[in-house]
């Protein structure tokens, strides 16, 4: 039997102790016996009182140290070299419960980390840890402003970085998870963008289930943001997930103020409700017609004439599709490839596609416990977003950095409003 280290010799260091949730941390344990098996455990309590936890097993090196940058997990909730795996693997003690964090400005996620000098098989061990520490993971940088927006028809929140600006502007359109738990606008603003987190249904006095998508509403939002005194007047970017990505693509096609577009697991078709823009109506493609579209995937002329397909060739700005290859919610890769085919055939070259093997539908910024299962309480249904946990979380790290780079590259900064 291996000899256990004394508790008072064991140290646990996590650095930095305070950070934004999209920033990596280092985790090190020392004072162990050489080749000692230990358990590292992380846990937090959300605003509703639900516990989220993760655990992984490690073996110390010949100096009695475990450094997650170099020490692979040998079991637990994941295996392999994943320095941020304990944060990625946080899951609810209640199955299929998504982490709720409504106060994204005023309080952090407080994550507790614990070391056990044995393998912990019970997710909630009765024995005390050998040592413990905690870290604060924030969603907003100090000095960030959150301003409620009720301007004409526009509803949402404007997030402004500290300083005078002008800042590059981004419109963020939430997807199926809802505005109340969307973290991306806060992190975008923490990275130097003025962000309009734009609601478009089931928010404030907006209709819960609109019968169509009114693109004029989104054009009003673009005009509001581009004319704000702290936002560059040279144009704004837009990012959306799922239905939000579909709307973001429509904005790129028709609204000239849009200068960069990121579509995350969206479609090239108007789906469900019709889209209206002035006198123009684009018919929403019913779900039963999707297979008919797939049958014509190798016929670009069919795609060019289909009345539900958005005219991507009209977009004046670059478009970046981010796709999870294991998306179980919709055939996002298929739609992104169709977008590139149509754009190329009709002469538009600046349409980019980045896909991630093993990633699912809800590609968010990194550092937030991933939700790979859809629970719709209002419809009493359960479905799969898709994704393999470690692959999905790695994809979130990569796609987030590429999104920031894309927006920094294509949204002008230098033109202040007067």
Beta strand count: 23
* Fourth CATH level, the homologous superfamily of the largest domain: Alpha/Beta hydrolase fold, catalytic domain
Gap from first CA to last CA:
74 Å
Unreliable spans: none
Radius of gyration from CA coordinates: 23 Å
What is the 3D form?
A: globular
Explain what you see.
This protein is of the alpha/beta class and 418 residues long. It has 2 domains: 7-138, Sandwich (Immunoglobulin-like); 145-410, Rossmann fold. The protein contains 8 helices and 23 strands. It has helices at 85-88, 184-190, 215-226, 243-254, 290-295, 300-305, 332-345, 389-410, and strands at residues 11-15, 18-20, 26-30, 37-45, 51-59, 66-67, 75-76, 91-92, 109-116, 131-138, 145-151, 154-160, 167-173, 194-198, 212-214, 231-241, 258-264, 274-277, 280-282, 319-324, 351-356, 373-376, 381-384. A hairpin with a 2-residue loop joins strand 18 and strand 19. The relative contact order is 0.12. The mean pLDDT is 89.
Blueprint of the fold:
Layout: E1 11-15, E2 18-20, E3 26-30, E4 37-45, E5 51-59, E6 66-67, E7 75-76, H1 85-88, E8 91-92, E9 109-116, E10 131-138, E11 145-151, E12 154-160, E13 167-173, H2 184-190, E14 194-198, E15 212-214, H3 215-226, E16 231-241, H4 243-254, E17 258-264, E18 274-277, E19 280-282, H5 290-295, H6 300-305, E20 319-324, H7 332-345, E21 351-356, E22 373-376, E23 381-384, H8 389-410
Parallel strand pairs: 2-10, 13-14, 13-16, 15-18, 16-17, 17-20, 20-21
Antiparallel strand pairs: 1-3, 3-6, 4-5, 4-9, 5-7, 5-8, 9-10, 11-12, 12-14, 18-19, 22-23
């Amino acid at each position: 039997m291996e000899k256990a280290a004394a508790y008072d010799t064991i140290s646990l260091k996590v650095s930095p102790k305070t950070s934004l949730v999209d920033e990596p941390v280092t985790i090190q344990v020392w004072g162990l016996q050489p080749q000692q098996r230990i358990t590292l455990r992380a846990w937090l309590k959300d605003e509703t009182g639900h516990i989220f936890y993760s655990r992984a097993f490690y073996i110390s090196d010949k100096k009695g140290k475990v450094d997650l940058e170099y020490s692979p997990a040998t079991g637990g909730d994941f295996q392999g070299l994943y320095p941020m795996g304990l944060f990625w693997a946080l899951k609810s003690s209640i199955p299929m419960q998504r982490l709720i964090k409504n106060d994204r400005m005023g309080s952090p996620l407080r994550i507790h980390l614990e070391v056990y000098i044995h393998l912990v098989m019970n997710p909630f061990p009765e024995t005390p840890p050998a040592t413990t520490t905690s870290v604060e993971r924030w969603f907003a940088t100090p000095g960030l402003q959150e301003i409620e927006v009720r301007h004409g028809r526009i509803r949402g929140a404007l997030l402004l970085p500290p300083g005078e600006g002008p800042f590059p502007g981004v419109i963020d359109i939430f997807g199926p998870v809802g505005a109340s738990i969307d973290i991306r606008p806060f992190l975008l603003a923490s990275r130097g963008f003025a962000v309009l987190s734009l609601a478009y249904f089931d928010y404030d006095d907006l209709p819960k289930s609109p019968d169509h998508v009114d693109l004029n509403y989104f054009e009003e939002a673009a005009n509001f943001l581009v004319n704000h005194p702290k936002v560059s007047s040279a144009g704004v970017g837009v990012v959306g997930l799922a239905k939000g990505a579909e709307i973001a693509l429509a904005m790129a096609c028709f609204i000239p103020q849009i200068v960069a577009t990121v579509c995350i697991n969206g479609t090239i078709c108007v789906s469900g409700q019709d889209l209206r823009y002035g006198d123009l109506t684009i018919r929403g493609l019913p779900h039963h017609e999707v297979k008919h579209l797939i049958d014509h995937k190798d016929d670009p002329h069919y795609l060019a004439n289909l009345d539900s397909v958005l005219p991507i060739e009209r977009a004046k700005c670059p478009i970046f599709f981010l796709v999870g290859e294991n998306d179980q919610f919709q055939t996002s890769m298929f739609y992104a490839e169709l977008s590139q085919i149509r754009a190329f055939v009709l002469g538009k070259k600046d349409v980019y596609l980045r896909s991630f093997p093993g990633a699912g539908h809800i590609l968010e910024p990194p550092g937030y416990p991933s939700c790979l299962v859809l629970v719709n309480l209002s419809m009493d249904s359960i479905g799969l977003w898709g994704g393999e946990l470690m692959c999905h979380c790695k994809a979130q790290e990569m796609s987030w950095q590429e999104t920031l780079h894309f927006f920094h590259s294509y949204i002008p900064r230098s033109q202040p409003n007067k």
